[in-house]
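Weekly structure sync, notes
Attendees: PL (lead), two postdocs, one rotation student
Agenda item 3: pending single-chain targets
PL asked that the sequence for the first pending target be pasted directly into the notes so everyone works from the same version. It is reproduced below exactly as submitted, 127 residues in total.
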Amino acid sequence: MASDEAPQQPVVPDAWSETCLRWFRDGAPAQSQEVLSFFDRNCVSGSTPAALEQPTPEVASLLSACGLLDASGQCVQLGTGLAAAYVEARNAARAEAHRQLLKCRRQRFLDLLEVHGLGSSTTATSE
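Predicted structure, written out during the meeting:
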């Protein structure tokens, strides 16, 4: 008998989303870029454990927090569903970084208009 329950979505650790967001928004720290690169090279189906690069201790700690290294320090081979969930979380973090950066640029533009006397109070009355 088939179950009426929908299949459970794979859970991606918050540390992964936060690491992605920090890299896309701030371009730092360098360990974030290393974690994303490690994921792309080593954690998808088809990569062979013999070809895995050994991360630095700082990166290894972050990889563990992101769920990409197991307790013995070996790369976790993600199944198709979990790998897709990681990619989806990475893409969502990239989109969020773009939203945050756009908001900052917009505010800097409004501040610049205000400095030059072209702010919202001037433009609102001229319409």
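Discussion points:
- DSSP finds five helices and no strands in the chain.
- Residues 18 and 43 are 18 Å apart (CA to CA).
Action: rotation student to compare against the earlier draft before next sync.
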